[in-house]
Amino acid sequence: MTDKTVRIPIVIQNGKIELQQPAPLNLFPDELYREGAEGFLILDADSIHEDWAEQLNQDKTADFLPQGAIVYFSVNPNRVHDDMRQHLIAIPYEKIEISKFVRIDRRYVSVQVIEPLQINLRGTKSARLCPCSCVILSTGQKASSLNEAYKLIVEKYEPDRRSNAGNVFQLGLWQENEKAPYIFLDTRRQEIQCTTSQVKKQDA
Does pTM top 0.85 for this prediction? Predict the structure, then answer.
């Protein structure tokens, strides 16, 4: 799924999904959507059966990264001040997984998780990382989560940025072992969600 989306107003009539906004008259129904298109149907929680709503919104916590794991957050070296450049880490491009998040002009700052990092799987909603003690290895700064650690990195390494916010799933890399490629935390999240979904199907 791309970052660009379209909101399609719908209404459920007689158990069927109907378009609220008429489609162009010159198009046939099978021309309205691309085959295999994926998306989400967002409804008021009160409008679906409570048992199904509970299933869709079921929370579960799963292991994400082991204690001692190191996450590498990308920074723009052109924004880093001279006194901090010596701490930047270069990761060979060919050792990073093929992903739309890869930027060949980036350098990295390492963060170590002091305790096992877990992820909160929130049904069909976006998963979130749980709080976890961690430390920025180059500066010794401690943080209570990867999100906080990234904000501290931006403040220290890219102080001229207007915002210190960022998506850690798209900016952080992790390597399971020396022979494995560096993967984005987003890939790791998808692996966990896929594994959890398969377990649910087996238990059903």
Answer: no
